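Page header: ASSEMBLY MODEL / two components / 450 residues total.
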Amino acid sequence: MNKKVLNAEAAIEGLLDNMTIGLGGFGLCGIPENSIAALIRKGVKGLTCISNNAGVDDFGIGLMLQTRQVKKMISSYVGENEEFERQMLSGELDVDLVPQGTLATRLMAAGYGMPVIYTPAGVGTEVAIGKESRIFGNKEYLMEYAFDIDFSIVKAWKGDAHGNLIFRKTSRNFNPLVAMAGKITIAEVEELVPAGELDPDHIHLPGIYVHRIFQGVDYEKRIEQRTVRSKN
Amino acid sequence: MLDKNGIAKRIAQEIKDGYYVNLGIGIPTLVANFIPEGMNVVLQSENGLLGIGPFPIDGEEDADLINAGKQTITTVPGSAFFDSALSFGMIRAGKVDLTILGAMEVSENGDIANWKIPGKMVKGMGGAMDLVASAKNIIVAMQHVNKAGESKLLPACDLPLTGIRCVKKIVTELAVLDVLPEGGFRLLERAPGVSVEVIIKATAGKLIVEGDIPEMVL
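Prediction written out in full:
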């Protein structure tokens, strides 16, 4: 059960043009920095990216937009990114906006082996257009499909050679869900330890969902909105 | 007439001891500053935290600890982290007692529009559609009229909807209003120094005024 690979380049082997990939993170928090850099170096194109956000102009998925590697984004919120806006308005980039809870739960459904979910989010709005709905009790729900993802790429705090993952604080966000949804799942971690060193009671995502794991380097962990108070 | 802090202060009066509360971005975030000390309230951040604390002291910010507005935050004792599916699971299941969010328009049947303006760059709905579709109790913090003086409390929303028949209460710079299940804004309170006539003029949707309308106590 050794899923350890040398680095990000080795981890993304087989990730090809026009594939659908899922990326963990919320804003710039908990994004797989090393793998994104490797995707840019590899130059793989025409990607459909499922990710809650699209990064900022010069970090995260924003970097892959600069290099025109993304054909379509499936996200809940894509603000704070001028290049994104330009490509979307010019028609170079296709965008599918999905309510955040729907996005998370469609990923979860893929990992739980369920083809669809029913959610009230979007009922009566343009999100509901063309979708099947059902009434349960006296409330209407939209049927939304589980995602089908070729490669999932996530970032965790700690991991072991079996692919078991532990996340830190709010950088967990979409990471375990994206990990569950991939046909092939890559995890980059800040600290990779031999199997047996993590307490099984503390694992957030069992390694059965992870196929390749490596210890990342030089994490920048950029903060999008630095808000502080003074000591007094 | 209330300023943003005044609206937040009035909304804080709606929070009860023992509540789990989700605060949206903008004026709703300010509500946290007016929760009485000693009251047991847990703030939910939909990116995966129960127990939002104040902003960190300068130098102690942590890139792994942010709120739904992507701001660096801290946690309070007794807080918990979780993933985004669980976060919206607890929202969908009605475990969050109160959701406070902003709006661009609300209609007299409780529809809300707050995510998209045709012709402008669409940034996305984030978690707003999930929150309004599932929350047990939704209070909207908003401006009663736009910059041109036109009412934002309407018979029907003009902007693309975020959710339908979901808003229960509205606090604006002018008034506190209920949205009645059968339709209509029922005037409950006036902002300090604001007359009922001013509120009538500022409300395009069906407004119900019964008896004397008290002034807010802030």
